[in-house]
Design brief:
Blueprint: H1 19-35, E1 39-40, E2 46-48, H2 49-56, H3 61-66, E3 68-71, E4 77-80, H4 85-94, E5 103-112, E6 124-133, H5 138-155, E7 162-167, H6 171-186, H7 194-202, H8 213-219, H9 231-247, E8 252-253, E9 267-272, E10 281-287, H10 291-294, E11 302-308, H11 309-319, E12 332-336, H12 339-355, E13 361-363, H13 370-379, E14 384-388, H14 390-394, E15 397-402, E16 409-413, H15 417-425
Parallel strand pairs: 1-5, 7-8, 12-13, 12-14
Antiparallel strand pairs: 2-4, 3-4, 5-6, 6-11, 7-9, 9-10, 10-11, 14-15, 15-16
């Protein structure tokens, strides 16, 4: 007997009982983005490996350990995308969408990272990304925050997320801070956790994001990034905070907030929750003004965020917000008995769909007796069963049984059934 095949570890199926929540969540996100003037762009899931090595940074954990990279049949190195921003920049530059233009773009789809699967973190996961090109001021940074805040309200989780913000400054000011941080931590290297010791030689700013308690204790006395900000970055950041204050958006300035990707500078932010244990970041982003030029384009200011959908869905479940997902059960089930009635059943179903756009109609197919067919109709979750046997067909009538009310059954002329249903389903 052949071995039963299973999905690749960390790459999960979404089953029929799960997809209504996903569809509702995705629709809320897409509708909110459209209301703010964002246009959807659809990007390939596979890109040249060089794109991610150049944009993310060759000494990041993603490039060093997590990317799904292989040679295709032409011998070219390609990678399943671990994040979406680099591909969006590549597409925008390739198709002439960015230079001297303002673009608000969004995308949705699977990303891939080879890491240890756990709740809220998978090897194939899904993200929504929003990217803005051509606007350099702090007002667009703030508008992104307002967009997210409105989305949390639409989803019903505004009381479960909080905002953390910081400024990374320019690459020059970050370099000065990096030197000071390395000098401070090198003297305490033996007290750092193993991962932070490795990062001290490769990507020391990521030590600020360490989850190790001992390392965090050391960082209390470490130099602060704010003390190294250049004047222009400081002005940008304080302008950003003023917009948030004027809009009434609560936030915390987190001096240790950095992003895991090398292309970020100036404003960075995270929406976090304490409702999901260790997987606390729901949405994160910031400015990456140098990335377009770094990938071969003209200097272009840019800012954006990424939203992890698996983690967001976990938060929706925890917060009880999925109770707002619209019912996807059929509203009407058609049950036919007898050869002539069965032949007419599909035509009746199509007529109902024409007369009542949006009506969810399920035809009970597959044979069986009356008892078996009615059991299937009841199990479908439908409100009404429309029954036609030979007698109803000859009398041009339909027997309607209310499946949710004991003993409620009436006979309705076939010509009037659409209006009858419209009136009752509107209740």
């Amino acid at each position: 007997m052949a071995k039963r095949l299973q999905a690749v570890r960390g790459m999960n199926d979404l089953l029929p009982e799960q997809t209504p929540g996903w569809q509702w969540m995705e629709r809320c996100i897409a509708d909110t983005l459209r209301r703010y003037g964002y246009d959807e762009i659809r990007l390939p899931i596979m890109e040249p490996t060089a794109l991610f090595a150049r944009s993310i940074g060759e000494v990041t954990d993603i490039v060093e350990k997590e990317m799904y990279t292989f040679e295709d049949r032409n011998g070219d190195s390609v990678t399943l995308r671990p994040e979406g921003t680099a591909g969006c920049v590549r597409a925008g530059e390739q198709h002439g969408l960015l230079y001297n233009q303002v673009r608000r773009l969004w995308y949705m789809g699977p990303m891939f990272r080879h890491e240890r699967p756990q709740k809220g973190r998978y090897r194939q996961f899904h993200q929504v990304g929003a990217e803005v090109f051509g606007l350099a001021g702090p007002d667009i940074d703030a508008e992104l925050i307002l967009l997210c805040a409105r989305l949390w309200k639409e989803l019903g989780i505004q009381d479960h997320v909080t905002l953390q913000v910081n400024s990374l400054g320019t690459s020059a000011s970050r370099g000065r801070y990096r030197d000071a941080l390395v000098a401070f931590l090198t003297k305490r290297r033996s007290d750092l956790d193993a991962d932070s010791q490795r990062r001290l030689d490769t990507n020391p700013l990521r030590i600020l994001d360490s989850k190790d308690g001992g390392t965090q204790s050391l960082l209390v006395e470490a130099p602060q990034l704010a003390d190294f900000l250049d004047a222009e970055s400081a002005e940008h950041f304080y302008g950003f905070l003023r917009y948030l204050d004027q809009a009434g958006i609560p936030y915390t300035v987190n001096q240790r907030l950095v992003r895991g990707l090398d292309y970020y500078g100036r404003t960075v932010f995270e929406w976090v929750t304490d409702s999901l244990g260790a997987q606390g970041t729901v949405c994160a982003g910031g400015r990456y003004d140098g990335l377009v030029e770094h990938l071969g384009g003209k200097p272009t200011p840019a800012v954006g965020f990424a939203l992890g959908l698996e983690r967001l869905l976990l938060l929706l479940e925890t917060a009880g917000a999925l109770s707002r997902v619209p019912d996807r059960a059929p509203q009407v089930c058609l049950v036919a008995l007898g050869e002539a009635a069965e032949a007419a059943r599909l035509t009746l179903a199509e007529r109902l769909r024409d007369d009542l756009p949006g009506l969810r109609v399920l035809s009970v197919l597959g044979g069986g007796g009356m008892k078996s067919r009615m059991k299937k109709a009841d199990q479908s979750g439908a409100r009404f069963a429309l029954i036609q046997g030979e007698d109803e067909l000859h009398g041009d009538q339909i027997t309607v049984r209310d499946l949710r009310r004991e003993g409620a059954q009436v006979t309705v002329p076939a010509a009037e059934i659409a209006g009858w249903l419209r009136e009752r389903l509107a209740d």
